[in-house]
Each structure stands twice: as C-alpha cells, then as structure tokens.
Specification:
With 265 residues, this protein is mainly alpha-helical. The chain has helices at 2-21, 26-45, 52-70, 76-95, 99-117, 122-127, 133-158, 173-193, 200-227, 243-264, and strands spanning 162-164, 168-172. Strands 1-2 form a two-stranded antiparallel ribbon.
C-alpha cells in the first residue's frame, strides 16, 4: 500500500506542479474538468449503481455546474446552479411517477453536482486570484500532503483511540493530531520557501485550520461511502483509491483559503 502511494505521488506531483505554475489557467482548468467528470461518475455510482438514469442525471447536472464555475465569467456559477436545479426538477416532473422518491434521488444528484462541480473549481479561481495565486495552490496541496503523511505514520505507530469508529474505523485521535502537527510544519516551511508575505501567526492559523478542515472533509466523504456501503470511491489512483478519495481532504481547505484571501486580504 505505502509503495503504491509513493509511486503514484512520484508521478503525479511533478505533473501537478507544472500545471499549477503554468502562466495560463487553461492547463489546470482542463485537469480540474477531467478530475471533476471522474469525480461525478464516482459519486453517482455510489447511490445509483443500478439506476442508469439517475447516474446520468448526476453527471449531467454536475457537468453543467462544473462548466459554469470554470468559465471564470461573472454570474456563470449562479446561472449554472439555477439551471441544474431547474433541469433536475423537470426530470422529476416528467420521468418519475414516484415523486417522493424522485425528489430524494434528485437531492442526492444535486449534492454530487455541488460537491464536485462547485467546490473543485476553486483551485482554478485561487490560481488566478493574483500574482501569488499559483503559490497558494501549492501551499494547500503541500500542507494537505504532509499532514496526510504525518497522520498516516503517527496513526500507525501510536494510534490507540478511535476518532469516529462509526464513520471511519481506521482513523484515530493520535493520527488526527499527527495531521494537524504535520500541517503546521508544512505551512511554516511553505512560508519560509515561497510565501514570505505571510506572517507566522497567519501561517499557523491557515495551516492549522486546513489540517482540521481536511480531516472533516475526509470524514464527510467517509459518511457518503458508509451510507452507500462503498469502501473506496474508485480505483484510478493505485494505493489511494478514487478521485474523491484524493480530493476529499482538499476541498474544504481550498474553500477556506480562497475566501480568507478574498475577504481579509
């Protein structure tokens, strides 16, 4: 498992850095779009493994939201969400005689469309937020990866107390503390190497909050997998699972950092 994780990271990290640091937003936007489509497929297969219509609806609505968010045009995200909601309601009206269950299924489809389609494009928004935008994206990924690695080793070496056994039996309190500490160390290193404009207080605030939010994002995805009796969301990354298993600890942090910068800087 560890060897597969390291091999995957050795291939993915250099490619990801090239796309993030590339001057144009389009290479990263294309990657986010591809990852988003795969993520929508993975999400929809959890509740709708045997319902092709509902699976297709989730992917279609999510693609609409994803394209709206990636357009980088004012109001397009709001328009795409409104369009996805209207199309979803029309789908229930014209194709589902069981209105009550149809609305429940639509709720799951909208959840998937927003979870992937509205949150993931914030990486492109952040990359294009200013001169330091690409560095902020690297900051988020570096903090998440170091925190995740620290949590993995601390949890395996010292983990004794289960964090949320009903949601994720493998997670421990000790491992979670390892994630937060690893995130803090990574945040300080990022400040010293390429984000010198950060104060040490802001560095600790952001990286510590990201460590906590990443864990919460991971647990939220675990709730989805538990609800639909799925071990991994997919198989595309050897040793890591699917796309959703890789981005679950990144989505909440990127939202937090993006709006922190937008509102307080």
């Amino acid at each position: 498992m560890l060897r597969a994780r390291l091999a995957t990271a050795a291939v993915a990290i250099p490619l990801l850095l090239v796309l993030i640091l590339y001057p144009s937003p389009w290479p990263l936007a294309v990657l986010v779009f591809i990852v988003g489509i795969i993520g929508l497929d993975e999400f929809s297969r959890m509740p709708f493994a045997h319902q092709k219509g509902e699976w297709a609806l989730t992917v279609i609505l999510g693609t609409i939201v994803l394209l709206g968010a990636l357009s980088m045009h004012e109001h397009m995200l709001g328009l795409s969400i409104a369009l996805a909601l209207i199309l979803g309601l029309l789908w229930v009206l014209f194709t589902r005689p069981d209105f009550e269950q149809g609305l429940r299924d639509l709720g799951l489809s909208i959840l998937g469309a927003l979870y992937v389609g509205a949150l993931l494009p914030h990486f492109v928004w952040l990359q294009q937020s200013g001169e330091l935008g690409p560095r902020w994206v690297v900051f988020i990924i570096a903090v998440a990866m170091v925190g995740d690695t620290a949590g993995y080793f601390v949890g395996h070496a010292l983990g004794r107390h289960k964090l949320t056994p009903r949601v994720s039996p493998g997670k421990t309190v000790e491992g979670t503390i390892g994630v937060v500490l690893g995130s803090l160390v990574a945040g300080v290193l990022c400040k010293l190497i390429f984000l010198s404009t950060l104060t040490i207080q802001e560095t600790l605030l952001l990286s510590g909050a990201m460590g906590v939010l990443g864990q919460l994002g991971d647990l939220c995805e675990s709730v989805m997998k538990r609800a639909f009796a799925t071990k991994d969301s997919g198989w595309i990354f050897p040793g890591h699972g699917g796309v959703l298993d890789r981005i679950d600890s990144l989505l909440f942090p990127v939202i937090f950092v993006y709006y922190h910068l937008a509102l307080f800087r």
